[in-house]
Structures are given as C-alpha cells and as structure tokens.
Design a protein that fits this description.
343 residues, 12 helices, 24% strand, globular
Length: 343
C-alpha cells in the first residue's frame, strides 16, 4: 500500500471560540492510502492543546510509511495493531491512517465501513450544531443562521454562561447541550446544573479539567442535577473504565483515541458499563466527519457538525443537513476529494 498526505487549511465561516481560545481556520492533513488504483481517505487536525503540529504528524506518518509499503490490504483492525507498535504515542496520526484504511477496505470489497466494523445499519440519530463562545448577540445571530437543527451544543466557560443559555432558550425549544471544555470548578458545575436543568438542558460535557482530583469529579457526579459527559477525560481505551462511576457517559473523538478501531471498542465497552455514548468531532472537513459517522450504530448522541462550520470544504461524503446524517452511496466511508481542496 502507498501512504501519502498533504496539508490543507480550512477557513471557518465565523471565528470559533471555546474556553481555551479562538480559531479562524483549521490546519489539517489529508491522508491517502492506496492499493490497486483504489484510494481511501483519512484526516487529522493539528491541535495546540494536545501538542500536534504539521511537522509532528508528518514525522509519525514517515515512520510507518515503509511498514505500509510492505503490507497488502489487510483488514484495518490488523493494520491498526501493526501501526500502533511503531507510533504508539501518536493517536492523531494513527486515527487518520485507520480512517483511510477503512475507506480503502470498503471500496476494495464493496462494503460500507459500518459493515467492516461489524456494525448494523445506522440508527436515526441526529447531530447537534455547535455555537462557539461569543457575545450573546452574536451567539443568537449564529443560532438564527442555523435555526432548524433539532439539537444545539453551546460552548461555555464565561462569566455570562447562564445568560447565554437563557438567551438561546428564548429563541428555540430545541434540545440544548452545553460544553464547558474544562472551565468550571466543582462548585460552579453543581450550581450551574441547577439553573441549566430549569432551562431544559440535556447534559453538561466536561465541566472540570481532565486532571481534576477524583474527589472533585465524584462530587460533581453525585450532586449535579444533569448528566456529566466525559470528553477531555476520555482519550484512550484505558480511560473508559476510569470514567465509570465519575461520568454518566463518554464523548470520544477519533483523533484522540486513535481511530475507528479503538473508538468502536471504547463505545462497546461504555455500553457494557451502562454509560451513554457519543462521538464528537474537531472542526474538520467531510473526510473526518465521514469516518466518525460510521460509528452511529453505537451511539446515543452525535456531534458531527465540524464541516458545517467551514466556509470551504475539502471533500464529499457523509452530509449533515439540519442535524440529519445522510450517508454516501459510495462504499467505505464514502469519501471523494473535491477537485479544489483548500490549501
């Protein structure tokens, strides 16, 4: 197999702010894996919080380039295990190769990636649409630009958090979820959960820092009026068991866990433990969204709006239309690059 990649910069429709900072564009690598004139596609984003740059990701890909050149198109789960031995500490790079491997395998064998993962047909689960932190007026404006989604995820971590949710609740009766991205204390979380419950919020995602003491996490778990969903606290397969009893559910991202192979195992494990399951995304193109959407049969919730936030996309594939997930008729994950990808 032949491994290649190229850099792209994805422009955003609006600046996107969370508790850790603001983005105006997203830097990504599009990874391709080819065999017998058939190509599969994966994607990985650069990420300052997790310490991944173009250069670090490319260095990891270079380390497995020779390994892949000597491999036939084996099942992606087998390929993942081989690559993980070489780059065990770079889940971001692994995730892009794993996604490309599933897309390639499906195209070679005429099956959808869900089938290659041993999953049933996807359930009718809708994606949320994310409203990044901004002034209240701007957040209301962003909602009005996308008014027909059944679910909204609101980024919080400001002195006006409750006012933001109140303003948006006046605009819509849709389901609202909130994500504090590690910005709250236990006391804030418990107090906010009371007010947010009264506003009809469904759950709170990652209110405390991932490194928060277990006692603090347990206090929130036991006293919050709303379910608490782990994100930054659930990066790898080993984290699922650690989150059990401290969170009501997990939100995985393919780049953080290493891809579809470990991600599907994490979701199955969480379900066995009685936890809610969710897959989220970075701001990324349809390449990455198409891979993540293949896990819908294992999900209770989905947050797959990353490409919707872009001013310009890089691919066709799985589409998200007002929350509805629409799969491509192409095998694999259904990805086809657009003729002119952002650079």
């Amino acid at each position: 197999m032949k491994l290649q990649w190229h850099r792209i910069e994805l422009p955003l429709k609006d600046p996107f702010t969370i508790a850790r900072g603001t983005m105006h564009h997203q830097q990504c690598l599009i990874v391709t894996l080819s065999h017998a004139d058939v190509t599969g596609y994966g994607e990985v984003t650069c990420n300052r919080y997790y310490g991944h740059t173009y250069e670090s990701l490319e260095a990891s890909l270079q380390r497995i380039e020779g390994l892949l050149a000597d491999c036939d198109a084996v099942h992606p789960s087998d390929l993942f295990e081989r690559c993980q031995v070489v780059i065990p500490d770079d889940t971001f790079a692994l995730s892009a190769v794993d996604a490309a491997a599933y897309d390639l395998y499906g195209k070679l064998h005429g099956v959808r990636t869900t089938e290659a993962l041993g999953l049933s047909e996807p359930a009718e689960i809708c994606s949320s649409y994310t409203l990044g932190i901004d002034s209240i007026d701007q957040m209301v404006r962003k909602y009005r630009d996308q008014p027909d989604w059944p679910i909204y995820k609101i980024k919080l971590g400001t002195p006006q958090d409750l006012d933001i949710v109140r303003a948006l609740r006046r605009e819509t009766e849709a389901v609202i979820r909130v994500d504090a991205n590690c910005a709250w204390t236990p006391e804030q979380t418990i107090a906010n959960s009371e007010a947010l419950a009264e506003l009809g919020v469904e759950f709170i995602e990652q209110p405390l820092p991932a490194e928060a003491p277990r006692a603090a996490q347990l206090e929130v778990f036991e006293h919050s009026r709303l379910p608490i969903i782990a994100d930054e606290s659930c990066r790898t397969e080993e984290d699922v068991q650690k989150c059990h009893g401290l969170f009501h559910g997990i939100n995985i991202k393919l780049c953080k866990c290493g891809g579809l192979t470990p991600g599907s195992r994490m979701l199955r494990q969480a379900r066995q433990l009685g936890m809610k399951t969710m897959v989220g995304c970075m701001i990324e193109s349809t390449v990455g969204i198409s891979a993540a959407a293949q896990l819908l049969p294992l999900l209770d919730c989905a947050d797959l709006d990353g490409a919707t936030l872009l001013a310009e996309d890089a691919a066709d594939g799985v589409r998200i239309e007002n929350g509805r997930v629409i799969f491509s008729s192409i095998p694999g994950s259904g990805v086809e690059l657009l003729a002119r990808s952002p650079r």
